[in-house]
Amino acid sequence: MTVTVRSAQDGDWDAAARAYTDALPHDPVSGSELRKRDEEQRDWGYRSGTLVACNPEDEVIGTASYFQDPGAYHPRRFTLELAVAPQAQGQGAGTALWEALDTCLREADAESVRVLAREDHSVAPVFLARRSFVGDKRYFTSALDVTTFDEAPYRMLESRLAQQGVRVRSLSDLRAAGIPDLPTRLHALMSDVRSDVPRAEPATPLSFQVFEEAVLGDPGLLPDAYLVAEHGEALIGQTALFRSEASTDLLTGLTGVTRDWRGRGVATALKIAAIRAARIMGATLIRTDNASDNAPMLAINDRLGFVRDPASVSYMLRY
């Protein structure tokens, strides 16, 4: 099959998202979400691009993107995504997309590039190995059925924390209470708790602009399930749930607790509150992902009943 690769155009986003989601149903995305990421990268001054592969009828059969992680930023390090619709796999679209991506990355003077691939995927691990990608860090995506979750065993934990003066409030509650400088304080909290989260690349400071636009401004953020743990006037922990337009499942953002409060049940209490919020919203499933060396958070998720999918591997190519 003759495959044409070009930059994504205004009318391509939905078709690109369908091809990506059909190929990777565990990681669904909508066209507007793809377009939003592309626009944000340009607004923040990062180098990025989205390509589509088309068949002779000019139908989008695959997509690939390269972009930079604002939370682990390096001017010459990139993240990429690549997917070909199942019905078009094995016909050269993936190779054509990679060759075009490789050209873009070399023009951007890339030092390295990373891509995630499920270890049980029928094509991706071999495809990447043939192109000199090397797998290193592993991640687990896990899911919890909130309709069957029993929160009774955790009521004593919540009571004990309440006696210590810890309470959990949602972003909706905090906004209604008129907390002064709330976005600034939430940004400071996230900046604090994310610094120790295991990741494939070293964490870099998340600018207030990125926090406002990519977190608080995310259309998928659920204000009733963006939860903050407080002790007096101090913010000591957070978790958040998001909803993609492409799925009814809820997705977990960053869960973290300040160092002085770790190991005291705050993260578990935040998770319980998030499960409760998800149930109130009528959700069925919560998904989360964690690095394989994030033992404390994996242990919490396991105790709560999250069931792990096969691991995803972060593959890196050095230029």
From TrEMBL:
Domain N-acetyltransferase: 3-161, 177-319
Organism per entry: Deinococcus malanensis
Superkingdom of this protein's organism: Bacteria
Name of the featured protein: GCN5 family acetyltransferase
CDD domains linked: NAT_SF
One Pfam family hit: Acetyltransf_1
Keywords on record: Acyltransferase, Transferase
Coiled-coil parts of chain: none
InterPro entries named in the record: Acyl_CoA_acyltransferase, Bact_Acetyltransf, GNAT_dom
